[in-house]
């Protein structure tokens, strides 16, 4: 803490200038005697270091180091006192030094990189490589191709030629700073440095995830930090035997998958925790699906081994049955026996994490402007928008201009997971920042830029793109576009399969996996019995998968979620139809001619049985309209039990053509009397698609 007057003296400005700046930054002070908090000082330093005070000019930037060297006795005293209280105030001096310019993430003049442009000719490539076009033509001819100086080159050919000159070819499209999620950042081996692994723990509820995280945190916080994290930011970093490890604490599998769906592949390693006394549970299977779909290394932590009912062999057997083969059984997945409560086995678990990260050779370039992902964000009445982020590449500094999602701002405060103020933070570090005017979403990507002007321009362009995307929502992937994806070089198609019974599930799954069309692999990333769920939609969205339902039916809410996310759901009741349509889609012969339109749904409330008529379902129309003679399905617990026609439709003893939402009616289904209370009757029609 210091007074406004002391601060003005420190930085060589008048009291009036500092008070004006405080008011501009909404710092509540009225006189020179009022005290400035540490956060207030950071914001003022930040403004000063970036040359943005009202009466501040560019020439002052060059004199900053001299100003700092001429500190007052009070400042020297403050620096001495902070040797006891931490080194933050001493680090303040760094804010006044002229910033070391970080390398931009956009390629401008890298001699070892050639940018490929659409329609690039032999002459263009020769000019970029600073060589004679004749040389290029000779090299292309050696590949068995005849070209002229003005012939256009495809990317693959240009890449082969470029590599012969020991240079890297990059697509110009990959240098779009506005869509920085897709930006291909180019780093030389000399610039890359080892970074800590980022770990996510997943598993069934009550299997010990929270206890494990707490125990790891309390056991491995640095000296003098007993009591652990003071500020929950959804992630934290520990130091284990000189190596740092970052843990991301996601609230559940849905959040993990949602972040993946938004392009945020932030996890390097997934730990699946399984209770030794409980074994594999439904959410354990979900965790396996999500972790495998993410394509990252998995470690299985078998927890609660200290309990009398612990059965480790049972866990191994059940995990193997779900496609997770233990190393001890000849598989490739590490299993570690632990007790999150007592701490037993935790050292081995952390050592396995370090080992896996070393095998993966995790590296990043700290000499760039930072980029990464939002973990979570909130609005604080005192600090404004607080955003918790994970830096994935580069270095983020106090005062950096930043774009998060569609919002731009400047880093006002930068804190670690223990609430300590930082001047800068590097790769794999979770930090909390302020300085944004709006709240971004978890999973949004961020990138720092050279100037606020640049960041604002990029954010404005991203807002326009976001508006357009809302008008034209993207499709994750649909059966109709499989052929075009295959033509573009796609070699694997992801499928999520849900069926009514185990026998159907296995039969459809085996039929799909045996399908062989031009070397394309059908990858069933999840299969199971029961109705299509919101979790299935999330996984399909994150993994660009198509959902196939066999004798099952999603309810209205699930259908709407799938539509919003652009997830294609295909429903079948005959196995050969599944295989036939998939094969036709891959070969470009798929010709969908009809689209299904749901007319309405009704819930069966009461049954009336008559010998001549059969079973009449006393029903309540919950949505849309039910029409006589319309096609209709009877759905029980998400499973289709019958698909035929509405035979009769009555209202108050009168036969009617249709019954609208909110009304009661009597329904009979053609050739089907095994109807039950709480069944859902879904009326639909098929409409021809005009192409």
Description:
By secondary structure, the chain is an alpha+beta fold. The chain folds into five domains: 2-96, no CATH class; 197-361, Rossmann fold, CATH 3.40.50; 371-463, Elongation Factor Tu (Ef-tu), domain 3 (Beta Barrel), CATH 2.40.30; 479-592, Rossmann fold, CATH 3.40.50; 595-688, Translation factors (Elongation Factor Tu (Ef-tu), domain 3, Beta Barrel). It is 32% helix and 29% strand. It is built from 21 helices and 32 strands. A six-stranded mixed beta sheet has the order 7-8-6-9-10-11. Strands 13-14-19-17-16-20 form a six-stranded antiparallel barrel. A six-stranded antiparallel β-barrel has the order 25-26-31-28-27-32. A hairpin with a 3-residue loop joins strand 13 (371-380) and strand 14 (384-393). Helix 1 crosses helix 2, helix 12 packs parallel to helix 13 and helix 18 runs parallel beside helix 21 (575-586). The longest helix has 20 residues, at 452-471. It starts with a strand and ends with a strand. The model is unreliable at 52-86, 95-99 and 222-231 (pLDDT under 50).
């Amino acid at each position: 803490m210091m007074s406004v007057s002391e601060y003005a003296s420190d930085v060589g400005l008048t009291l009036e200038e500092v008070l004006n700046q405080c008011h501009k930054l909404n710092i509540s002070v009225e006189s020179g005697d009022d005290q400035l908090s540490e956060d207030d000082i950071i914001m003022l330093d930040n403004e000063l270091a970036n040359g943005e005070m009202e009466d501040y000019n560019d020439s002052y930037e060059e004199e900053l180091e001299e100003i700092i060297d001429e500190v007052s006795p009070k400042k020297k005293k403050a620096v001495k006192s902070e040797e006891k209280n931490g080194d933050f105030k001493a680090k303040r001096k760094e804010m006044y030094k002229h910033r070391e310019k970080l390398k931009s993430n956009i390629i401008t003049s890298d001699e070892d990189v050639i940018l490929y442009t659409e329609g690039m000719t032999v002459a263009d490539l020769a000019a970029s490589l600073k060589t004679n076009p004749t040389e290029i033509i000779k090299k292309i001819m050696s590949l068995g191709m005849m070209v002229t100086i003005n012939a256009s080159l495809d990317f693959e050919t240009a890449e082969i030629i470029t590599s012969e000159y020991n240079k890297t070819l990059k697509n110009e499209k990959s240098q779009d700073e506005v869509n920085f999620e897709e930006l291909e950042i180019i780093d030389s081996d000399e610039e890359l440095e080892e970074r800590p692994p980022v770990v996510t723990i997943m598993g069934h509820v009550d299997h010990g995830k929270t206890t494990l995280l707490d125990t790891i945190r309390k056991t491995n916080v640095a000296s003098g930090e007993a009591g652990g994290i003071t500020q929950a930011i959804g992630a934290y970093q520990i130091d284990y035997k000189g190596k740092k490890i970052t843990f991301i604490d996601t609230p559940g599998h849905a959040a993990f998958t949602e972040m993946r769906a938004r392009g945020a592949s932030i996890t390097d390693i997934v730990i699946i925790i399984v209770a030794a006394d409980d074994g594999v549970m439904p959410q354990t299977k979900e965790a396996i699906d999500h972790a495998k779909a993410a394509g990252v290394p998995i470690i299985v932590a078998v927890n609660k081994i200290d309990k009398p009912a612990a059965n480790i062999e049972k866990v191994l057997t059940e995990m193997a049955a779900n496609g997770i083969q233990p190393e001890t059984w000849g598989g490739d997945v590490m299993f570690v026996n632990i007790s999150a409560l007592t701490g037993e086995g935790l050292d081995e678990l952390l050592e396995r994490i370090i080992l896996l990260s070393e095998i993966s050779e995790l590296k990043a370039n700290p000499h760039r402007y930072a980029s990464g992902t939002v973990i979570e964000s909130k609005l604080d009445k005192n600090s404004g928008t607080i955003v918790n982020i994970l830096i994935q590449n580069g270095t983020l500094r106090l005062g950096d201009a930043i774009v998060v999602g569609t919002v731009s701002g400047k880093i006002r405060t930068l804190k670690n997971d223990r609430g300590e103020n930082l001047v800068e933070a590097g790769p794999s570090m979770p930090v909390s920042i302020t300085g944004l005017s709006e709240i971004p979403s978890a999973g949004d990507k961020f990138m720092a830029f050279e100037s606020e002007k640049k960041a604002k321009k990029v954010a404005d362009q991203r807002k326009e793109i976001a508006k357009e995307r809302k008008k034209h929502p993207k499709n994750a992937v649909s059966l109709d576009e499989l052929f075009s994806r295959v033509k573009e070089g796609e070699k694997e198609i992801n499928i999520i399969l849900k069926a009514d019974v185990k026998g159907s599930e296995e039969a459809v799954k085996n039929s799909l996996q045996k399908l062989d069309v031009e070397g394309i692999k059908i990858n069933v990333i999840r299969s199971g019995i029961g109705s299509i769920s919101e979790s299935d939609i999330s996984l399909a969205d994150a993994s660009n998968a198509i959902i196939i339902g066999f004798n099952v039916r999603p309810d209205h809410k699930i259908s709407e979620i799938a539509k919003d996310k652009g997830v294609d759901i295909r429903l079948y009741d005959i196995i050969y139809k599944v295989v036939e349509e998939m094969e036709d889609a891959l070969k470009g012969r798929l010709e969908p001619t009809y689209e299904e339109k749901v007319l309405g749904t009704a819930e069966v409330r009461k049954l009336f049985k008559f010998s001549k008529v059969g079973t009449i379902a006393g029903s309540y129309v919950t949505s849309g309209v039910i029409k006589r003679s319309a096609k209709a399905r009877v759905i029980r617990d998400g499973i289709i039990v019958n698909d035929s026609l509405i035979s009769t439709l009555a209202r108050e003893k009168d036969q009617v053509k249709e019954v609208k939402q909110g009304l009661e009616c009597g329904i009979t289904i053609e050739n089907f009397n095994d109807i039950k209370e709480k069944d859902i009757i879904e009326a639909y029609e098929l409409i021809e698609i005009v192409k």
